[in-house]
């Protein structure tokens, strides 16, 4: 594919943006057909782009761009296991992890779904054993607490889903409490260990590579803690650790018993891995049936992605509206704003999914790109962010594209009618805030009728014209969360396909890992001396400061 910036549709979109100039969303929104034209439904999901600075012609040109970038062929390549991760010479087959058991997917002469289903079955056995209270620690007591040790994709996805679906714990199982520790400084683990009983605690050592220093360090600390309290290292390893990784050898070398090893494949990227055995904490939280519902929701979205026309395709439309903002309106910031406390970690999860995937500046051909790629993305629960950073959205100088996400229904499962009503009132208030904010961002102060007596005071002005998309889900369930996550995964893929970059590698984080190890050596210097040749003056200064402060303490 030639550079997207050389395509006819790219040029036409530049002209469209010029023509649109400063035209305010207030004017565009004044059209009764707009909502119908720019919103789409699929299986309990609604995507509304009518608050984007998009006109019918804009959408037409964006779809033309997608076609000129051979998007449909690229989607097919992804889903059929072509080796599209060029720098690592392998496919990216996270979508295969959510195939129904009876489907086949042949890649390199192998039906890979056989291995996937076998891994799910092994996971199910472990989950059921723990839920039945039959997984016992070295003292014979059943496990009641599970700590997931992992970082990046081995932490953020499971953490986000466990938090979002905490209400979906099956009633007929003995509950286990799930905790997460990721930070290399040990602060989360130290906090957990203060409260935990070693006799009833199981650790999941979760790392695709099984060589990430952050997780290795936490696992080593956990291992010492257990051996210190319980003795007998061999039994501790056997009865208090499960390993999840792409490497059997490394798990065995570390001491994980073979029966406690869950394996996944190098064609599953870390940030796309929550559907694999990396999702073990999720299955422990919501049961294997719930986990399979999550997979089913994602699979339904995969099918929608594969078969819907581009003009009706939710991930394609979400991605194209992003491309319009980033590449043609120069809007380089993206906020993720869920209006549901259960989605607290969804923005964090998306920061890795989007920025580690598409934070690239080299094309698939190895050329420097001459257009912007992934924007800076951040987020927070919408109602809380209203009291934190919405000031900037309303009156700051930055243009920001916002995704508002909310469920339509909530709390119907509460049995006590009075409590149900109270919480449903709160949910209604949350939805009202969601719609009010996106409206205000679109219209500015025109959203509110002016009184004759109103003085046009500059500090009271809301300029509006901030674009946003709204994603509504009928209700938050394992199935709909699966859909929502897959929707964003595919959005990321579509943007990468347009930008002609590889969303499945992350070479930009490798050098940092290497250099940190050399830096740690400097902090161990017994003579408190820093080799001036090994570091720049700024870093030498910081190292010396620490060495002398440590010596004095
Ligand atoms: O699962 P692993 O191999 O420990 O890697 C953890 C994370 O580290 C990264 O490689 C980045 O440092 C991510 O891509 C990955 O999700």
Automatic annotation (TrEMBL):
It is an enzyme of class 5 (isomerase). Keywords: Cytoplasm, Gluconeogenesis, Glycolysis, Isomerase. It is found in: Cytoplasm. The keyword Isomerase applies. It comes from the Bacteria. Its main location: cytoplasm. Its EC number is 5.3.1.9. Pathway: Carbohydrate degradation; glycolysis; D-glyceraldehyde 3-phosphate and glycerone phosphate from D-glucose: step 2/4; Carbohydrate biosynthesis; gluconeogenesis. InterPro entries: G6P_Isomerase, G6P_Isomerase_C, Phosphoglucose_isomerase_CS, SIS_dom_sf, SIS_PGI_1, SIS_PGI_2. The active site is at residues 356, 387, 513. It catalyses: alpha-D-glucose 6-phosphate = beta-D-fructose 6-phosphate. Catalyzes the reversible isomerization of glucose-6-phosphate to fructose-6-phosphate. Belongs to the GPI family. PANTHER family: GLUCOSE-6-PHOSPHATE ISOMERASE (PTHR11469). This is Glucose-6-phosphate isomerase.
